[in-house]
Specification:
With 388 residues, the chain is α/β, with parallel strands linked by helices. The chain has a seven-stranded parallel β-sheet with strand order 3-7-8-9-10-11-12. A three-stranded antiparallel β-sheet has the order 4-5-6, with no helix packed on it. It has a two-stranded antiparallel sheet with strand order 1-2. It has a single domain, classed as Alpha-Beta Barrel (TIM Barrel), CATH 3.20.20.210. It is globular. It is built from 13 helices and twelve strands. The model has no long low-confidence stretch (mean pLDDT 96).
Length: 388
């Protein structure tokens, strides 16, 4: 009998085959991660280094304890850029010129929220995008040690590896312009909006390629960042804006990623797109434009019911996430978490295609008891053939 490693399990599911059990993943922010380690009886971890979303990368001992099958690698920071002094209001500027400040959360901790948008108070005819101090995607510091880290994870563990390299396009445009102003640009100044997003896209494509060149052959999944396209009950954008403005820009980035994966010996790697919300209307276009896997699969949003998604798209599209982080994981009992996990596996798991995970970075309102209940449900009931 061939041994089912985590990597083989994930890649079988990505190819719409049934492995030994449903594979799993976990993304989590610092406070619930520390609590989880304590609950599991694991030693305190030093130097967690949360990113700007507060997310930390779970250590191998946590992955082993919960039976998680995925880890990830990212680009490093640039070596030829120095952060400027904070603004008078305390905003810390990143290399895109966007400022952020910590905003406390009611459940403890904080989020770094955008507090300064460098292009917000100017009209398009006052903005010289050629003269803007754009980030340098070719800075050698971005890939320093990346290939070695990916090779080590590939050889020393049996985990599947996700690459997360370039950042967002739509979100970065909104950060630079201010969200309200950017939405108005899409209607009032579409040529400017397209120019801005294409310049961002060029940089993200270059960052993607740098990461793929260094580590692509070790990956199972490449995440083309996150582009939130939906609200809770409807798409965020009209069909006209989607088809004529946004889709061509995103498609260019996704197709460039596929070309880079093929060029650097990673044709087996599947492309994952993160998009929150009710995005069912866009899914046929996502598939046509090269997306293999969607995250976070917010099944509580309108049109995102798991049985319908599986029936209509499950033969060609994979699902990463699906566990309800709006109600069940933070507010449900461990038994309710278990029942939700069973429902997700029953509807999205047959014939493979599912990597079960929380539908968002686990936040401070999720107890370690509920997280353990989620992964225990997979261990107890997630074996193929599913008989839930």
């Amino acid at each position: 009998m061939t041994e089912w490693t985590s990597r083989r399990r994930v890649e079988a599911a990505l190819n719409h085959q049934e492995p030994d059990r449903v594979p799993t993943d976990l993304t989590i922010v610092e406070i619930p991660y520390v609590r989880l380690r304590q609950y599991l009886g694991l030693p305190k971890e030093k130097d967690l280094r949360p990113n700007r979303f507060g997310e930390v990368r779970p250590a191998p001992d946590v992955l082993e304890a919960l039976g998680i099958d995925l880890t990830f690698v990212t680009l490093r920071g640039p070596s030829h850029w120095t952060a400027p002094e904070p603004l008078p209001d305390g905003s810390v500027l990143d290399e895109w010129g966007v400022g952020r400040k910590p905003v406390p959360l009611p459940v403890g901790g904080f989020l770094l929220e955008v507090s300064y948008s460098p292009l917000r108070d100017k009209s398009p005819d006052e903005i010289d995008l050629d003269a803007y101090p754009w980030p340098d995607p070719h800075d050698p510091g971005r890939i320093k040690g990346l290939a070695e880290e990916a090779e080590r994870l590939y050889n020393d563990t049996d985990l599947a590896i996700m690459g997360r390299f370039g950042g967002t396009i739509l979100e970065m445009a909104s950060f630079m312009r201010g969200y309200e102003q950017w939405l108005m640009d899409l209607i009032r100044y579409p040529d400017f909006a397209i120019d801005l997003m294409n310049r961002i896209t060029d940089i993200q494509i270059a960052l993607d390629e740098a990461g793929i060149r260094a580590a692509g052959k070790y990956l199972s999944i490449f995440k083309v960042s996150g582009e939130d396209l939906g609200m809770q009950d409807r798409p965020l954008f009209s069909p006209k804006v989607w088809q004529h403005i946004l889709r061509p820009i995103l498609r260019r980035r996704w197709q460039a990623a596929r070309e880079a994966l093929d060029r650097y010996g990673a044709s087996h790697v599947k492309i994952l797109l993160h998009s929150d919300g009710a995005i069912r209307e866009f899914i046929p276009d996502l598939i046509a434009d090269g997306i293999d896997l969607i995250d976070p699969v917010q099944i509580q949003c309108k049109g995102m019911e798991p049985d319908g998604l599986k029936q209509d798209f499950g033969d060609v599209l994979g699902f990463h996430g699906a566990m309800n982080t709006q109600q069940v994981l933070p507010f449900g009992s461990p038994e309710e978490v278990k029942a939700e996990a069973l429902r997700c596996m029953k509807t999205l798991g047959p014939q493979g295609g599912l990597i079960l995970a929380p539908g968002h970075n686990v936040q401070n309102d999720v107890s370690p008891e509920n997280l353990v209940a989620l992964y225990q449900a997979v261990k107890d009931y997630g074996q193929y053939p599913l008989s839930i």
